[in-house]
Amino acid sequence: MVVGGRRNTVCFLATFLSLFLTSLLLTNVEVFGYPSTVMPPVSWTNDVPIGFSFWESVGVRPILVNGSFVCGFHCKFEGTPCLFAISIFPSSLDSNSSFSTQMVWSANRNKPIGLGAKLQFSQEGDLTLEDDHDTLVWSTNTTGKFVLGMKLTHQGNLILFDGNNKTVWQSFDHPTDCLVLGQRLVSGQKLKANMSSTDWTEGLYSFSINSSNGYFVASIGSNATLDYYQSYGSQRNKRSQFYAIFSDNNFGPFTFLRAGVSFIQLGSDGHLRSFSWVESEWKEVDDLFKDELNRCDYPLACGEYGICLAGGGCNCPEPDENNTAHFKMINSDHPDLGCSPNVPLSCKSSSHESLLEIKHVSRSASYLPNNSNITEIESCKQACLNNCSCKYAVFRSYGSSPVPSALCFFGSEALSFKREVDAYYNSSVFLKVQSSITVQSSPGHFPQRKKRSKVGVILAITLGATYIGFLISTVFLLQIKKDPKDVEEDYLGHISGTPTRFSYEQLKIATNNFSNKLGEGGFGCVFQGTLPCGTQIAVKCLDGFGPVRKSFIAEVETIGSIHHFNLVRLVGFCVEKSRMLLVYEYMCNGSLDQWIFCRDKALALGWQCRRKIILEIANGLAYLHGGCRQKIIHLDIKPQNILLDENFNAKVSDFGLSKLVGRDQSQIVTTMRGTPGYMAPEWLNSVITEKVDVYSFGIVVLEILCGRKNVDRSLPEEDGHLVSLFKRKVEDGQFLDLVDKYNEEMQSNAAEVVEMMKVAAWCLQGEYAKRPSMSIMVKFLEGKMDDENEYDFSNPPALAEVETYRHQMDAAAVTASPLIPSILSGPR
Hints:
Blueprint: H1 2-27, E1 37-38, E2 42-45, E3 60-66, E4 69-75, E5 82-88, E6 102-106, E7 118-121, E8 127-130, E9 136-139, E10 147-152, E11 158-162, E12 167-170, E13 178-180, E14 184-186, E15 190-194, E16 202-209, E17 216-220, E18 226-231, E19 235-236, E20 242-245, E21 250-251, E22 254-255, E23 263-266, E24 272-278, E25 281-287, E26 307-308, E27 314-315, E28 327-329, E29 339-341, E30 353-359, E31 361-363, H2 377-386, E32 392-397, E33 406-411, E34 417-419, E35 426-434, H3 454-478, H4 484-493, E36 500-501, H5 504-510, E37 517-521, E38 524-530, E39 536-542, H6 547-559, E40 570-576, E41 579-585, H7 593-596, H8 607-626, E42 631-633, E43 642-644, E44 650-652, E45 659-661, E46 668-669, E47 687-688, H9 691-706, H10 722-732, H11 744-748, H12 750-763, H13 774-781, H14 803-814
Parallel strand pairs: 26-34, 36-40
Antiparallel strand pairs: 1-10, 2-7, 3-4, 4-5, 5-6, 7-8, 8-9, 10-11, 11-12, 13-23, 14-20, 15-16, 16-17, 17-18, 19-20, 21-22, 23-24, 24-25, 26-27, 28-29, 30-35, 31-34, 32-33, 32-35, 37-38, 38-39, 39-41, 40-41, 42-45, 43-44, 46-47
Helix pairs in contact: 8-9, 8-13, 9-12
């Protein structure tokens, strides 16, 4: 009895002590050594936790704490990717409450880190986050701005301040998906929802204040191209910016019916909600859009291609007049997940596309801009068929309503639709659908051969018997040696960070027996496919040996373990004896050359799109040259190797010729490789640096701006080489003549286009040392550095001569290691 009594007493004391420490933690957090202000230099590492911690139980490793906010490393579970973030937690808890936090801001949501990552606050005043490979993940870019210290305020704002206690940088200026009490949203800032409740990366929904009229706008799309909510209620400050403050009672047009709202969050479903700490957990208090929007008004209420029914539920589009079903439900148990086309769309097979009309249906988002200026229904339909990026068209006619009397809208992203009930306009949706295509020849299916003559058969049998006898002897001799291909397969299996290895049978199923060909070239063919999880892929089948096999290994080794938004992601690979396949993310808009060299005005890229593409190519190359553990020189930058996704985001692809370089190496010696016309003059000496990519980038920029190929033999000889023509026009002051003359928008923005030509001139200098690094180029394109004299048109740089191209062609003919033209770009 005594022993049992003592044991109960010990348990009671342990429980009491635990509750006491919890109360102490939440009433005075600095007791546990977590300050609210720090001075540089100081650093923190995302280490494995040692012992039990209340913070660790909710996935937080604190750095700064103030009031109800904690700043530090946030992880869902031990061993999972983490974010440097700020969370809010209840300021006071009773003894029965569970400890819970809610993330309200993060720095690296699109680039999670793992154990070993380091946050550094340098003496120079910059706050940086690096992963465990010392690769820069995020930075405040405040070096040289006289930062004295860093603090977390009681409102949850992370601030870097100077000697006068003035704010140099603050997290409130860079919101993610939440606003906290006291925070303001200013025009130019944007809330971006998470991809899902379990995926922290940026999703499709955004919420902002329109800088031109002050309206609150909720949009969907990677470029916020489609609004589904609009409301007025902002104020204007002295700098003519529109803004709204999140106070106790309201936020812009939204009034809170219940006190104690702590934060507002834009959800992954597009709803804007307010939250409070209620009954020991964070609970939704109000859906702020509820007075304006119903279920079917949300763009993905029924998933992609789903039709939202007013009475509840979701359907897929009905079969056409021939009773052909073009869409199927992704999951019949969950209709809200949407529908998928039975045959995916393909720009390469546009002749097999048609439009499926759905009457009395409209887009879920009510605010449709007239992005085509077309007022005839047949013209609207035909324009959509002619536009590769158009997935559907909405046509609305207003009858006797005031002008405009009709609206034609093109949609490039598949969203939900809704049934119209008593609408004051007639609305029809035309979905672009793909017919099944019979492929004449694909792997495993060869066309029927013509009957051979008897003589031919006898001759074939005789030669075949002789050849088989020779093969048997050869194979017997080779059995004592291990096949070098087996060695390479073993090697690929042991590369660090190697992506998923597929079997040939898996890829055969994913591509429907390689039936949907996207393109072909010197190395083989590319086929479209879909993995069992629903991810669309492009499978590149390589044919050949020697250089082709080396290209395959280089690609897996180079990009298998690196990830950047502007690099095409290698999903996996397959190597089985002679079969070599690379599996990429699918890029539905193909390669850049199809768009910039196209004379079809309906497919022409506008100036803003081209400028964005130039910056994105630069970002991808800057990462290769300086953001990886090893420097990577691509060696084959050209428009065919720049791929575009559904939103025309540019991604660098095809790393078959790339070269890994140690960070301590300033130059490397290698055999000539690349594509003539895009190769820097120093290739003639075979001693190169990453500046060969800069030169190729300059050629691509020039082609984007001029809308023509660098080498065009269809033109007169004096105009056939773009670099030579560019040099001559600059010297004559006639560079306006170079602006793409087939594109009206490029012509109307000719002054800005000419300014961008400075970028090409800077990159095309004959001396590689005078060319900028790609990291400097990114800063210039982002407007973070001033112009430099060395690319001023009033004193043009010494551009590489066009003779370089001819020398490259001569060298390619005699070099011991043949020049490999990378004809077939990566995924399309």
